[in-house]
Amino acid sequence: MSSKNLDFGTFAQDVMLGLSASPKSLPSKYFYNSKGDKLFQQIMALPEYYLTKKEFEIFETQYESILEPVLNLGQSFNLVELGAGDGLKTKILLKYLKDIKADFQYFPIDFSGSVLQELKESLHSDFPELSVTCIEDTYRGSLVKRLWDNGKPNLILFLGSNLGNFSLKEAYDILDHLKIGATHGDFVLIGIDLKKDPQTILDAYHDSKGITRDFNLNLLDRINQELDGDIDVNSFKHWPCYDPVSGECRSYLVSLQEQTINLKALDQSFHFEAFEPIFTEISKKYSLSEIDRLAEKGGFVPVQNFTDSENYFADVLWR
Ligand code: AVI
């Protein structure tokens, strides 16, 4: 590939922009290639990564209340899921909806084609009669296109603290897009990680097995593979840090030495000073009052907050 022929918005273009910027950064959406998808599955099973377990608890114990408002509409509806992943939590809702013979269609959306393929197969074996339409797209892209729009009301799921992977400013932009996607007086259910003991949060992004480190470093592996790079992955250190004021857990890859990396596919070299960081991910946490403000400023009306027994995580239902 020649650097002159790069399409805007591609991995190559984003790497070029991110590594040329000061401070350097790489978009976290690129974690999710097939290796990254597998590593993320392992992260979700880690004892330190409480987020998945807490949200699972909320779904297991409160699925009826979560679904009550949309079922009370008394009509056929769409269950739309942004960033569906393995659909593990959603399957709890799907099972209940199937048991009560609810009339609905499921639209899982994910940026990762391989994740969608796996989800499609597992849904086919778990719920053979379910009407499923997979959409491979970004959050914003899918919300603007609204491929699911068949005039029926929607319950849009945005689970797993995916909103946390955006800064506050970007989160408002996502909420603006959610309003475009939620046109029929729809409901949105958003999974949000709550502020808590900073150590608990930091441990979730600095696990003892080093899986999160590998997940972060996989960005450099991916650059090596896809852009013909010569990066020595071991010369970078995974460095997460949590700021209890902003609620931002920010992850970096810090160059342990002064070095120049070469990306042949881009015809480009990038220089790193010793201990120069690449910012790779934000995982933002909110308090319940900050969530109320988010709803109000974002133009949504809170319907109900669902939290786990330790108040670690919240799934908030808005209209
Ligand atoms: C997908 N996302 C909500 C995860 C998070 O917690 O920010 C991604 C992740 N990054 C490191 N561990 C997990």
From TrEMBL:
<protein>
    <submittedName>
        <fullName>Dimethylhistidine N-methyltransferase</fullName>
    </submittedName>
</protein>
<feature type="domain" description="Histidine-specific methyltransferase SAM-dependent">
    <location>
        <begin position="11"/>
        <end position="319"/>
    </location>
</feature>
<keyword id="KW-0808">Transferase</keyword>
<dbReference type="InterPro" id="IPR019257">
    <property type="entry name" value="MeTrfase_dom"/>
</dbReference>
<dbReference type="GO" id="GO:0008168">
    <property type="term" value="F:methyltransferase activity"/>
</dbReference>
<dbReference type="GO" id="GO:0032259">
    <property type="term" value="P:methylation"/>
</dbReference>
<dbReference type="InterPro" id="IPR017804">
    <property type="entry name" value="MeTrfase_EgtD-like"/>
</dbReference>
<dbReference type="Pfam" id="PF10017">
    <property type="entry name" value="Methyltransf_33"/>
</dbReference>
<dbReference type="InterPro" id="IPR029063">
    <property type="entry name" value="SAM-dependent_MTases_sf"/>
</dbReference>
<dbReference type="InterPro" id="IPR051128">
    <property type="entry name" value="EgtD_Methyltrsf_superfamily"/>
</dbReference>
<keyword id="KW-0489">Methyltransferase</keyword>
